[in-house]
C-alpha cells in the first residue's frame, strides 16, 4: 500500500529540529525534502542584456547640478527597475565585511547555541527560524533567517547572539543615516521637498533580516528565496560575492551581480503605493546554489511592529491629479504586513489586494 505524503508532518518534523536548512546540510543529505521542491515558472527567461544601475552617492550632500543629476538617476532607476546599487554611501568596507562575517559565524554556531533564538513568535524582537511562512507557502525556500527589530525600539544587546551583537548595532546606525539620504533623494525624485518621506515616518522603523543560504545538493529543484516583492518602504541589501539575486524585468530575470562595497537598494510595496506607481516595487528572487553558503543582510524600512503607529498610508495627495487619480486605498503598515504574511510568498503581489 502506498501512503500519501504527509507534508504537514514533514514540515513539523523539520521545524521542531530548530536546526533549519543548515541542519539538513550538516546531516549530509543528498536529496532535498519534497516540501522544498518549487513549481517550475513559466514564460520567464534568464539572461537579458540589461544592467541594474550603479549610482555614486558622492554628490548627495551638495546643492548643485551634481545632486540634481543624482536625483534624476535615482528617479529613473526606481521607476524603471525598482532596483539600483549604490557606492560611496558612507559605510566603511570593513563594517560591511564584518557584518557579513557576523551572520556567517552565527549560522555556523553549534545547534544548541542557535536553538535559544529559534522561534515563530513574531512579537519577539529577535526571531531566528527557517522560512517565516513555512506552513503557508506552496514550497519552502532553501535558507535560514534571523529577523531583528532595530528601530524605533531596538532589543537590548543581550537579546542578540554574541558573535554578531556589536556589529549589528554598529551597522544599523550607518544604515539609519544612509536611509535619511535615500529618502531625501526619493522625495525629490517625486517632486516633493527633501524631508517629505522622513516627515511621514517612512524611515521610522527598521528591521534587519540576516539570510544564510547553505549549499544545496539539488539547486535546480528549489530556490533560495521565492519570487516576491518587499512589504516595506525601502530595502537596503548587503550581499556577499556568491551572487544569485535576480530581478524580474519585462518578464525576464536579470542578475544583480555582487559589487564589493556596494549596497543594493530596492523600492518596497509601500513606497509604490504612496507614490501611486511612480516608483516601482519589483519582484525578485534568489537562486539556490551548490557552492555556498551565501550570506546577505536586508534592512527593511517599515513600522509594522510599532504597535503605537496607526498612521494611514495612501497615495500622496500632492501626486494626485484628475489625470492621475489614486490607484490604491489607504492602509496602515500593520494591516499591509498582516495581509502579506498571511498569504506568504505565493508569487502574487500584495499590492493587488489594495488596488482600487
Concise overview:
Belongs to the iron/ascorbate-dependent oxidoreductase family. This protein is α+β, with helices and mostly antiparallel strands and 356 residues long.
Can you describe this structure?
The structure is a single chain. This protein has a single domain (44-354), classed as B-lactam Antibiotic, Isopenicillin N Synthase, Chain (Jelly Rolls). 30% of the residues lie in helices and 20% in strands. It is built from ten helices and 15 strands. The strands form three sheets. It has an eight-stranded mixed β-sheet. It has a five-stranded mixed β-sheet with strand order 1-10-9-12-7, with no helix packed on it. It has a two-stranded antiparallel ribbon with strand order 14-15. β9 (245-249) and β10 (252-255) form a beta hairpin. α3 (65-80) packs across α6 and α4 (93-107) packs across α6. The longest helix has 28 residues, at 162-189. The N and C termini lie far apart (52 Å).
Amino acid at each position: 500500500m502506498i501512503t500519501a505524503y504527509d507534508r504537514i508532518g514533514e514540515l513539523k518534523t523539520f521545524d521542531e529540529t530548530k536546526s533549519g536548512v543548515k541542519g539538513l546540510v550538516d546531516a549530509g543529505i543528498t536529496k532535498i525534502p519534497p516540501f522544498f521542491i518549487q513549481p517550475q515558472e513559466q514564460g520567464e527567461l534568464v539572461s537579458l542584456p540589461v544592467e541594474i544601475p550603479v549610482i555614486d552617492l558622492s554628490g548627495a550632500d551638495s546643492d548643485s547640478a551634481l545632486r540634481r543629476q543624482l536625483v534624476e538617476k535615482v528617479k529613473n532607476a526606481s521607476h524603471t527597475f525598482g532596483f539600483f546599487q549604490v557606492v560611496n554611501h558612507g559605510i566603511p568596507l570593513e563594517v560591511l565585511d564584518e557584518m557579513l562575517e557576523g551572520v556567517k559565524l552565527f549560522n555556523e554556531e553549534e545547534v544548541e547555541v542557535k536553538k535559544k533564538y529559534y522561534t515563530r513568535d513574531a512579537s519577539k524582537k529577535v526571531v531566528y527560524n527557517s522560512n517565516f511562512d513555512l506552513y503557508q507557502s506552496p514550497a519552502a525556500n532553501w535558507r535560514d533567517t534571523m529577523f531583528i527589530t532595530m528601530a524605533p525600539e531596538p532589543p537590548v544587546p543581550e537579546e542578540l547572539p554574541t558573535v554578531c551583537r556589536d556589529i549589528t548595532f554598529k551597522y544599523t546606525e550607518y544604515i539609519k543615516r544612509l536611509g535619511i539620504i535615500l529618502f531625501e533623494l526619493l522625495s525629490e525624485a517625486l517632486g516633493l521637498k527633501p524631508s517629505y518621506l522622513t516627515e511621514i515616518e517612512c524611515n521610522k522603523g527598521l528591521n534587519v533580516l540576516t539570510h544564510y543560504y547553505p549549499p544545496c545538493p539539488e539547486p535546480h529543484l528549489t530556490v533560495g528565496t521565492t519570487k516576491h516583492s518587499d512589504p516595506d518602504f525601502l530595502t537596503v541589501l548587503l550581499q556577499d560575492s556568491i551572487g544569485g539575486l535576480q530581478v524580474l524585468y519585462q518578464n525576464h530575470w536579470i542578475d544583480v551581480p555582487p559589487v564589493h562595497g556596494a549596497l543594493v537598494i530596492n523600492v518596497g510595496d509601500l513606497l509604490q503605493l504612496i507614490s501611486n506607481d511612480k516608483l516601482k516595487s519589483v519582484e525578485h528572487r534568489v537562486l539556490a546554489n551548490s557552492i555556498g553558503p551565501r550570506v546577505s543582510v536586508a534592512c527593511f524600512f517599515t513600522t509594522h511592529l510599532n504597535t503605537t503607529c496607526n498612521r494611514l498610508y495612501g497615495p500622496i495627495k500632492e501626486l494626485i491629479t484628475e489625470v492621475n487619480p489614486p490607484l490604491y486605498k489607504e492602509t496602515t503598515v500593520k494591516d499591509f504586513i498582516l495581509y502579506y504574511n498571511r498569504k506568504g510568498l505565493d508569487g502574487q503581489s500584495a499590492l493587488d489586494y489594495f488596488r482600487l
